[in-house]
Amino acid sequence: MALRIVIGDVTIGIHGQDFSYIFSVGSGGMESLYKDGKEWLYRSPRPAFWRAVTDNDRGCGFAFRSAVWSAADRFVRCSRVEARMDGQEIAIPLAPANNKYTGKETCDRFEIIYTYETPTVPVTEVTVTYTVETDGRIHVQADYCGKQGLPELPVFGMRFLMPTAAERYTYEGLSGETYPDRMAGGIPGVYEVQGLPVTPYMVPQDCGMHMQTKWVEIVRKTSLDNTDRGERSSRLKITAEEGKHFAFSCLPYTAQELENAMHHEELPPARRTVVSILGAVRGVGGINSWGADVEDAYHISGEQDITYGFWIE
């Protein structure tokens, strides 16, 4: 069944069987992802550059050297939008050219490309391409453009903020919490995690990373819809491209919320689900307690391009 396309003044709606999506030109991102009976977005997804500072990040001075990525994580801005239906370009800005559309347009493939620029010196760009297929699957491609002179990155990927806290998630990958330099003990398999656990380090910091993941499925019962009694669990699955994998974390807090707390009792109530789907993750170090830098193989250069993709199903 073909996709039905509704083109408004600042948004483009995509409708199909049991799904509907809204992509915004005004907010510079995907604004709504309605699937399996629930809305899955609380804010538009954005490129992720930062993680909550770890003990070793502080100890080796990495947080200071790469602090610009904290600002980029919060203040990256959309500078350009391109959209196509079956390869035919849609004029941006949408209005007043959208007056020619009837609301009954259809296509077999819809593609929208957001270009973001970072508040760094030098400025660099990230392009995020969403491609919607007729069965409702969305392919997400994220491309980071490396620039000479930019510091190393903590992470690179996409971050999704969901409206309510998930009841559990299941994934296929390595057991437990793993990082690029902490994978030797991870056992491949399928694992279910109840709730959204935060590792009880003395000082809240980045945690809950899962490397070499083939897919993750998030399960929610609650929503912000007052007519939804939460009687049925809904699922959203994110899958790596064929033959590839990604890293992910699924937490109740953003990096900024974790960093604002010196102790766990200072963390706010868990209200949302923060899912980070990452194509690159820096190691955590810990070679001589928390002072030596991460080994060279586990750094992420800000001067080199990074490309990865995944499917939302």
Automatic annotation (TrEMBL):
Residues 13-313 form the Beta galactosidase small chain/ domain. GO terms for cellular component: beta-galactosidase complex. Its EC number is 3.2.1.23. It is an enzyme of class 3 (hydrolase). InterPro entries: B-gal_small/dom_5, Bact_Beta-galactosidase, Gal_mutarotase_sf_dom, GH-type_carb-bd. The keyword Hydrolase applies. One of its GO terms (molecular function) is beta-galactosidase activity. GO terms for biological process: lactose catabolic process. It comes from the Bacteria. It catalyses: Hydrolysis of terminal non-reducing beta-D-galactose residues in beta-D-galactosides. Gene3D superfamilies: 2.70.98.10. Keywords: Glycosidase, Hydrolase. This is beta-galactosidase. It comes from Waltera acetigignens.
